[in-house]
Specification:
0% strand; 66% helix; mainly alpha; 127 residues; 6 helices
Length: 127
């Protein structure tokens, strides 16, 4: 009554979809690289992009609150109140953060195109 246990075949790993990696990389720079196994490189691009995104959102929201306070105040036509609205959204900060985010997006697309052509190192595929 010695039964031979059936061998369970190892799970076949499906190759990573490069189209899915490109879509992830478009939404969040570095996410496609993270998906393809280049975790450190993906994180080096994703973290600064997220910092730029959160920073721009914070600057915009602070400016929007200041704008609402100015517009909804009783003394809108008071001396200098309307002129104060010119710099309420901190256009230079928003432009700088937007350009930094765009630069990270372009760098991420270039790096993804280069990484697609190179296989993962042997030590990284074991883990």
């Amino acid at each position: 009554m010695n039964e031979i246990p059936l061998a369970i075949p190892p799970l076949l790993k499906r190759p990573k979809s490069l189209g899915w990696a490109a879509a992830l990389n478009f939404v969040l720079p570095g996410a496609g690289l993270f998906y393809l196994g280049r975790r450190m490189l993906g994180a080096l691009l994703a973290v600064p992009f997220l910092i730029c995104l959160v920073g721009a959102l914070g600057v915009f929201l602070i400016g929007y609150v200041h704008y609402l306070n100015t517009v909804l105040a009783d003394d809108l036509m008071k001396e200098g109140q309307l002129e104060q609205l010119l710099e309420v959204f901190h256009n230079r900060w928003l432009t700088g953060l937007g350009l930094a985010g765009l630069a990270l997006q372009i760098i991420s697309m270039i790096v993804l195109a280069v990484v697609r052509k190179k296989p993962l190192p042997a030590w990284n595929s074991i883990v």
